[in-house]
């Protein structure tokens, strides 16, 4: 319904909703997660996206995590060049733009500062929030009279 199909992103969405890390999403977690997912403030969405992209849960987005996320989310065109090299270059460019403390990885503070400076970076590693059309369609479906 929300057009997200990347398995790494979907796994991150699940982990972000599953606050107590018990492997399931309770009704409370579902409602709280949907609240941010559908109507969250910028601050809530920044926290949400950061946690989706932090694949191993160490509170950093590493070069390796960026590489995997970008590799899965970018459409690759057949070329004679190694497509991984282009992704590695993109990771380096991203770090130059977003890694404010220059430690070779993104902390939440790095991510938040970069997104506040350029909001397009919020979903820079893959789409993990629904667009407005999907939100409206979901809400219409949810609140239709049965």
What does this structure look like?
The protein has helices at residues 7-17, 27-39, 42-53, 63-73, 83-98, 108-117, 132-143, and strands spanning 60-61, 106-107. The chain is an all-alpha fold and 146 residues long. It has a two-stranded antiparallel sheet with strand order 1-2. The two termini are 19 Å apart.
Descriptive tags:
mainly alpha, two-stranded antiparallel ribbon, 7 helices, globular
Short description:
The chain has 146 residues and is mainly α. It is built from 7 helices and 2 strands, in the order αααβααβαα.
Quaternary organisation of the protein chains: single chain
Strand content: under 5%
State the helical fraction.
55-70%
Q: How would a textbook summarize the main sheet?
A: 2 strands, antiparallel
Number of strands: 2
Net shape: globular
Order of helices and strands: HHHEHHEHH
Low-confidence stretches: none
- With strands numbered from the N-terminus, the spatial order across the biggest sheet is 1-2
Distance between the termini: 19 Å
How many helical elements?
Answer: 7
Return Rg in Å.
Answer: 16 Å
Summing up helix and strand content along with how strands pair, one would put the structural category as: mainly alpha
């Amino acid at each position: 319904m929300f057009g997200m199909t990347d398995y790494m992103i979907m796994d991150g969405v699940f982990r972000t909703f599953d606050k107590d890390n018990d492997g399931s999403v309770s009704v409370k977690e579902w409602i709280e997660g949907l609240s941010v997912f559908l109507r969250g403030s910028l601050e809530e969405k920044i926290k949400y996206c950061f946690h989706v992209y932090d694949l191993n849960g160490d509170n950093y987005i590493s070069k390796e995590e960026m590489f995997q996320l970008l590799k899965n989310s970018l459409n690759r065109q057949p070329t004679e060049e190694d497509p991984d090299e282009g992704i590695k270059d993109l990771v380096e460019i991203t770090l130059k733009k977003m890694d404010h403390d220059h430690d070779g990885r993104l902390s939440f503070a790095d991510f938040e500062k970069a997104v506040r400076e350029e909001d397009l970076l919020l979903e820079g590693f893959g789409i993990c929030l629904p667009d407005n059309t999907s939100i409206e369609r979901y809400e219409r479906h949810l609140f239709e009279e049965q």
